[in-house]
Amino acid sequence: MTGPLDRWRAHAEDAVLLDGFHALKHALRFGAEVPVAVTTDREAALALAEELAVDVRDTLAGLLTEVSGPAYAALVPRPHPTGVAALAVRPSRAAGLAALARTPRTAPVVVLDNPRNLGNAGAVIRLAAGFGATGVVTTGTLDPWHPAVVRGGAGLHFATTVEHLDVGDLPAGPLFALDPEGEDIRGTRLPDDAVLAFGSERTGLSAELRARADHLLRLPMRPQVSSYNLATSVAMTLYHWSASGAPGAARPLRRPSAPGR
Ligand SMILES: C[S@@+](CC[C@H](N)C(=O)[O-])C[C@H]1O[C@@H](n2cnc3c(N)ncnc32)[C@H](O)[C@@H]1O
User: Fold this and answer.
1) With a 6 A CB cut-off, is 210 part of the ligand 1 pocket?
2) Is the pLDDT of residue 249 over 50?
3) Hey, whose CA ends up nearest to atom 1 of ligand 1?
4) pTM for this one?
5) Which one of 17, 139, 157, 228 is most buried, counting C-beta atoms within 10 A?
6) What is the mean pLDDT of residues 22-28?
7) Taking the domains of the chain in order of start, what are their residue ranges?
8) How far is CA 178 from the centre of its chain?
9) 4-88 against 93-243: fold identical
10) If you measure from the C-alpha of residue 143 to the centroid of ligand 1, how many angstroms do you get, rounded to a whole number?
11) Nearest to 227 by CA among 180, 181, 186, 182
12) Phi/psi of residue 48, each to 5°?
């Protein structure tokens, strides 16, 4: 029988690091396959589950193995304050592409056109999960499954679809590109099959993405402010989509199946 450290080493190469209690909790809630999970204090981790995530408490009890502080520190680059870490199996690209292509689409796809900041990409995945977006697609060189993006996403990569694509391969659907020079977003209703594209932190939307856009939209902003942060722009746009269903009928967001934070 192999111990947790052997299991960790066996999966470390291909798996996704879930860094901390909350990332593990979220990944489990959204069906991640977790072959190994360790903690420096099992009792404390299960007490946290009792308090914050009773819906996955039993699953955690079955998964978590206590390891020494030095053994834990050797597995993770930056020990998390909760002393919990796990590895999850990364969903297949084929499954991701199928989810992005499925029609009719009931919620938008968010496109980050050549994002540069790993934390921003993680924050956007967290937003997409919260709003029930179909997925987040990145173009360019950033890997949306980079450990720092997964850390920023708090384990919520498993609650949506996350893929990298070329601009020419973006999912079908009307493409709304967000840019301070566009039409005021407040005059536009965003459909459920929208593809919502956002530019790079440094250079904005690429020429290739602009050429594919059906609409260019701006978020309200005072003169003399040049632009908003990328993740906050996605937040405002997803909120606009969620609030702009049929008059008086804001789109209902799915609630977690069990109580928990
Ligand atoms: C930090 S901004 C990019 C700033 C960049 N220097 C530029 O030249 O556009 C990142 C992205 O957020 C979105 N964004 C920021 N402020 C916006 C606004 N007021 N209206 C629409 N989109 C905005 C755009 O998609 C933009 O490309």
Assistant:
1) no
2) no
3) 201
4) 0.92
5) 157
6) 96
7) 4-88, 93-243
8) 19
9) no
10) 21
11) 180
12) -65, -40
